[in-house]
Specification:
This protein folds into 2 domains: 4-48 and 159-220 and 320-365, NAD(P)-binding Rossmann-like Domain (Rossmann fold, 3-Layer(aba) Sandwich); 96-154 and 221-317, D-Amino Acid Oxidase, subunit A, domain 2 (D-Amino Acid Oxidase, Chain A, domain 2). The chain has helices at 13-23, 71-88, 111-115, 158-171, 279-292, 348-368; strands at 4-9, 28-34, 94-103, 134-135, 147-156, 175-178, 200-203, 220-230, 237-240, 249-255, 262-267, 269-270, 307-318, 323-329, 332-338. The radius of gyration is 20 Å and the shape is elongated. Strand 1 (4-9), helix 1 (13-23) and strand 2 form a beta-alpha-beta unit. The strands form 2 sheets. Strands 3, 4, 5, 8, 9, 10, 11, 12 and 13 form a 9-stranded mixed sheet that branches. A 6-stranded mixed sheet has the order 6-2-1-7-15-14, covered by helices on one side. It is α/β, with parallel strands linked by helices. One of its GO terms (biological process) is D-amino acid catabolic process. Residues 6-357 form the FAD dependent oxidoreductase domain. It is found in: Peroxisome matrix. FAD binds at residue 205.
Length: 369
């Protein structure tokens, strides 16, 4: 296959990881074209707001992608690259952190417990993937918690990691440009790529895929997440199966690598596009976090939290799972990689690997014509 010109649309974790993996093959000349780039904070741009961490939620038995590939496999294929970054590449802003998953029997059937279904299992598929997985003895559990597991996870400082992905892409010759497309076929026009022609487009527009011409995937909906970033150190990562404050509210705590602060969350409000912080939800988030993790304030109240900022992000959830498919749209080969919802980081390498395979297939088919 001769050298091919590829445009990746979207510079979130999906687009940047896909561009990075493609850029390792000298046969591709890549441009990342996006409305938003690392450093931007916008409600349309989900990746900077993420925690982000590795907490597999999907079950290989129940969540199958459109192409029939188990979504759990994408999470599985992502662990080794993230583990490598945490161990050997501190400049990427990824570090190891003990993670405890706390389960309350009364949450069964709630939106949050359903979202976290596999994560809450006493014997999840990923127990043989992550280090140090164990069931926590019942006598060690805090009041109100019925069961719990722990394992070594990673927490990602997105403010470092996203620019690191850009830097790795730049090192491999990837070009970056700001662009807004009304239709996905516009990304295939000769003016987008410095080579003057485009052989294939990769669509990593996340929530934007719901409105982007030529795609307009109505299965893509936002799942609104609200967080509080504080300077207090939690010392570990915690996630609870649910809350007493509403079916679509959540309780989780994680400390980002390299001084990135501690994330207190959250919510999982499907269909909610609201970009502004809800002050009353912020108070509930902080109260829940301090209640489950007294180490944050030394056992004191939320007034002892040192707040960096409040944030709102919209997870790009796709009913039916992440879309990794190839198709021809108005004569342009397009490979889709979007809709990972809250699993964008923890499935990023697995999804990108699957997308790269489809790029190869589409371009080989094209070269045979």
């Amino acid at each position: 296959m001769s050298q091919k010109n590829v445009v990746v649309v979207g510079a979130g974790v999906a687009g940047l990881t896909t561009a990075l993996l493609l850029s390792k093959d000298a046969r591709y000349k890549i441009v990342v074209a996006a409305k938003h780039m690392p450093g931007d904070y916008d409600i349309e741009y989900a990746s900077p707001w993420a925690g982000a961490n590795y907490m597999p939620q999907v079950s290989p038995r129940t969540h199958v992608s459109v192409r029939g590939t188990e979504a759990a496999q994408w999470d599985k294929n992502t662990w080794a690259p993230l583990e490598d970054l945490a161990r050997d590449h501190p400049e990427a802003g990824v570090h190891f952190q003990e993670c405890q998953i706390l389960s309350r029997a009364k949450d069964k059937g709630s939106a949050t417990a359903s979202w976290f279904a596999e994560l809450l299992s006493p014997s999840p598929w990923f127990k043989d993937v992550v280090p140090n997985f164990e069931v926590i003895p019942k006598e060690s559990l805090p009041s109100g918690i019925d069961s719990a597991t722990s394992f070594t996870s990673v927490c990602i400082n997105t403010a470092i990691y996203l620019p690191w992905l850009v830097s790795q892409c730049l090192k491999n010759g990837v070009k970056f440009r700001r662009a807004v497309f009304k239709h996905i076929s516009e990304a295939g026009s000769s003016s987008v790529h410095p080579a003057g022609k485009v052989d294939l487009v990769v669509n990593c527009t996340g929530l934007g895929s719901s409105k982007l011409g030529g795609v307009e995937d109505k299965n893509v909906v936002p799942a609104r997440g609200q967080i509080v970033v504080v300077r207090n150190d939690a010392g570990k990562m915690l996630d609870v199966s649910g809350t007493d404050d509403g079916d679509d509210e959540a309780c989780y705590v994680m400390t980002r690598a390299a001084g990135g602060g501690t994330i207190l969350g959250g919510s999982y409000q499907k269909g909610n596009w609201e970009s502004q912080v809800d002050p009353s939800l912020a108070v509930r988030i902080m109260k829940r976090a301090v209640g489950i993790c007294p180490a944050l304030t030394g056992g004191k109240g939320i007034e002892h939290l040192d707040i960096v900022r409040h944030g709102v992000g919209l997870r790009p959830v796709r009913e039916g799972g992440t879309r990794i498919e190839k198709e021809k749209i108005e004569g342009v080969w397009v490979v889709h990689n979007y809709g990972a919802g809250g699993a964008g980081y923890q499935s990023s390498y697995g999804c990108a690997q699957a997308a790269v395979k489809l790029v190869e297939q589409a371009l080989e088919a094209k070269s045979r014509l």
